Amino acid sequence: MKDKQVTSLDSKTDHSSLNMAKEHPNLPFSPDHNPPNRRTKLGVLFHTSEPTISPFYDQYQAAGSSSHEPTPSISPYSSPANFYLSPSPFHQTSPFSKSPWNFTFQNSPPIGSVQNNRLIGSLTREEGHVYSLASYGNLLYTGSDSRNIRVWKNLTEFSGFKSSSGLVKAIVVTGERVFTGHQDGKIRVWKYSDSKKVHKRVGSLPTTKDFIKCSMNPNNYVEVRRHRNIPWIKHYDVVSCMSLDENRGLLYSGSWDKTLRVWRLLDSKCLESVNAHDDAINTVVVGFDGLVFTGSADGSVKVWRRELVGKDTKHMLVYTLLNQETAVTSVAVNATDGVVYAGSSDGLVNFWERRKHELGHGGVMRGHKQAVLCLAAAGKLVFSGSADKNICVWRWEAGGVHSCLSVLTGHNGPVKCLAVQEHVDDDSGGGDGGWVVYSGSLDKSVKLWRVS
Fold first, then answer.
1. How far apart, in Å, are the Cα atoms of 90 and each of 15, 119, 145, 438?
2. Which of 44, 170, 213, 430 is at a distance of 20 to 30 A from 423, taking alpha carbons?
3. Where is pLDDT greater, at 224 or 237?
4. What is the rounded distance in angstroms from the CA atom of residue 357 to the CA atom of residue 434?
5. 118 Cβ neighbours under 8 A, 6+ residues apart
6. Which residues on adjacent β-strands are paired with residue 161?
């Protein structure tokens, strides 16, 4: 089943998703073996009802109480205390109107305690499901199917801008520029104006000039459907994911049109279009050693490297890490330790570790009952968000062992996106070994977690 039906809901379908795939009895793979070729069928992934938003109320559970959700079977730990924050009573639709976060505080256990992983704040807006997040410095960008991109600074609404290009599927930020990928296949470029305190759209990818120039040459057209040809530099379907390689000045974009495109940040030119997969691309991540990883609804994870071919530089397929029946929905990379993670619609997270001149399959992490929709890696931790409404916190240890430290619960809908940044101590201005995790959900909320 294509992940067009799995990981993303667009305005043409019922706004919501969600009972995910049937559970599979497969045991985790051996650390020393590649994934088996045995394939399982994917069940019905989503139902058509709207996510439930409960009436306004405040509910609090004391620290130390166990989670109402079962702990993953591999975890030796119990889940931390849960905090249930109600939807905001404010019903505001303007992208510039103020909407406060709801906060909850508790007597924090010592740093390093599993129970120190906790919910700090929650924001619920009635304007749409949250599909994308990006953190940059002290700013948080959120994108939804309302077409609004909101900017938060120190948990206060700082700015906002709106596009006519459909729901916001992906956001990446570099310096003063913000790139947003949309449902209609467009990539918009925004720039912050410090004098006017607003974000202004400064262009799109490809640029109008490049698109017109490319359109004038019949040899630049490629067939995308029967009786339909378009210039090769433009995505013709949803831009589902983006990733930055700031060292090389490149932006990668993946699309449901099955292609991977490479853009040069300096002049916004499209350098290359790669026919990467046999089905929709759901995730692209710039990794280590010059590698780029893509995951697709065709069930594969592929590894690419930019190499010199004749007089041109092109991205060549190095190898395929995974080839399965169920869709790959997300990929994350621990660049320091050379570990690659891939989440899929069967609820599993496969991982590979750097071994001399290759990536060897390390095993499978089982923590979710339904599809894994997003992954994020930070230090030796990796976070997995799922359609089962939970976020699992995993820790990598030498030898390929992963422990599930805790399960973050509190969302009323599938967790669609994650963003992580290092926690900065207000007094010292330095990091304390902890992380701030933002989670966006189809329950229309963004939650803020403190993880140590």
1. 22, 21, 19, 21
2. 170
3. 237
4. 32
5. 63, 80, 81, 83, 106, 108, 449, 450
6. 149
- Looking only at the bridges linking them, the beta strands covering 312-323 and 401-408 are unpaired
Give me the amino acid identity at 374.
Answer: C
Burial (CB < 10 A; 0-12, 13-18, 19+), residue 311, is exposed
The pLDDT mean for the chain works out to: 77
378 or 125, higher pLDDT? 378
Q: Would you call the peptide bond into 218 cis, given omega within 30 degrees of 0 as the criterion?
A: no
CB 374 within 8 Å of CB 415? yes
pLDDT per position as a tens digit, 136-184: 888 899 998 888 888 888 777 888 888 877 789 999 999 889 999 998 8
Examine the pLDDT at 424 and tell me if it is beyond 80.
no
Start-to-end C-alpha separation, the chain = 37
Q: pLDDT-derived band of residue 433, with 50, 70 and 90 as boundaries?
A: low
Helix or strand or coil: residue 273?
strand
Tokens of 238: 């949803």
Tokens of 106: 């508790």
Question: Cα torsion for 71, 73, 75, 77, to the nearest 10°?
Answer: 40
Q: Give the DSSP letter string of 22-68.
A: PP--PPPPPTTSPPPS-----------SPPP-PPS--EE--TTPPPS
CA distances from 408 to 105, 140, 390, 429, 446 (A): 16, 20, 6, 27, 13
Q: What is the pTM of this model?
A: 0.76
Would you say how long the chain is, in residues? 452
- What DSSP character marks residue 88? P
